[in-house]
Design a protein that fits this description.
By secondary structure, the protein is mainly alpha-helical. The chain has one domain. Helices cover 56% and strands 8% of the residues. It contains 2 helices and 2 strands; from the N terminus they run H-E-E-H. A two-stranded antiparallel sheet has the order 1-2. Strand 1 and strand 2 form a beta hairpin. The radius of gyration is 15 Å and the shape is elongated.
């Protein structure tokens, strides 16, 4: 069962990283801005 949990954790981590990289800055209704993730910071964050 431990191998299954390990696989689930790795899949979730990969999914979160993919979502962060895919997110772009968006400007929505009434000029509300949702900034994208700074992809250049990702290697530093993942190495911690």
């Amino acid at each position: 069962m431990d191998s299954l949990y390990e696989a689930v954790v790795q899949c979730v981590e990969e999914t979160v990283v993919n979502v962060l990289v895919a997110g772009r800055t968006m400007i929505g209704r009434d000029g509300h801005r949702s900034p994208g993730f700074p992809v250049e910071r990702l290697p530093d964050l993942l190495s911690r």
